[in-house]
């Protein structure tokens, strides 16, 4: 439900996020645009962020949040009686919202759609690398030029997508229109055979997906029932020379089992997330030549983060005008989101 700010009323808003990223997410031109529809309070600053955060919300009707914003607990909301809307200039809001947010009827929006473009592009790039066994070929090249016959492994043009999430669906769409002519398999308990076909994929069970895919890319949400989803048994089904890509959540994959498979040289792994995160110094996944571990670089980076701030500002404009929010997150949908 969208709550209109009220004709002629300029609600008070406050921006709360890590100062290290705030200037990139909300540069001066976006702040000026935001100030055209709200009275923008000074950003809170001080050594005790939780305390200044609660104080900053005392008069705010709108919170523009981002990375580093403290959680909206019941205690914080007790000191924010006027808060009516949250526009999160980042992806997941799971670490931000509490049950008290929903109980208060506060409208929540996420810029996850704006973050999806970079993540999809990154994932498709990794699929391209994995399909060519790039890490294995690069490691072998240090010793000698690899023979052409050694460059083939599992069928890298059969790609298994685990989870028809916002990112998963867009990855399927990109792969389906690629000149590489990928065969796409999809495992998702909430998708029907017909819907999978419309997306451009064949719906299969997870075990069948692992057995048939040369590249497995993980896009499922982390839920109690999906923790450790890719366990030792399923990883063992991926054919020799195959690859696992994880840009979703590290805990979806059994780290010890994956380490064994990569140590044996059977699988490649392209990991933008891990469990634990970060991996401890000296962990084998950090040094294996057939493993690429990156620190959450799949999402918006550098100048790309501006699109998150722009999305959040546009959501505030829509909320102030009483229009539907494009990125609204509901209590019912939240558990199935990343």
Automatic annotation (TrEMBL):
It comes from the Bacteria. GO terms for molecular function: NAD binding; oxidoreductase activity, acting on the CH-OH group of donors, NAD or NADP as acceptor. Residues 125-298 form the D-isomer specific 2-hydroxyacid dehydrogenase NAD-binding domain. Pfam families: 2-Hacid_dh, 2-Hacid_dh_C. Keywords: NAD, Oxidoreductase. Residues 49-329 form the D-isomer specific 2-hydroxyacid dehydrogenase catalytic domain. InterPro entries: D-2-hydroxyacid_DH, D-isomer_2_OHA_DH_cat_dom, D-isomer_DH_NAD-bd, NAD(P)-bd_dom_sf. The keyword Cell division does not apply. Belongs to the D-isomer specific 2-hydroxyacid dehydrogenase family. This is Hydroxyacid dehydrogenase. It comes from Streptomyces liangshanensis.
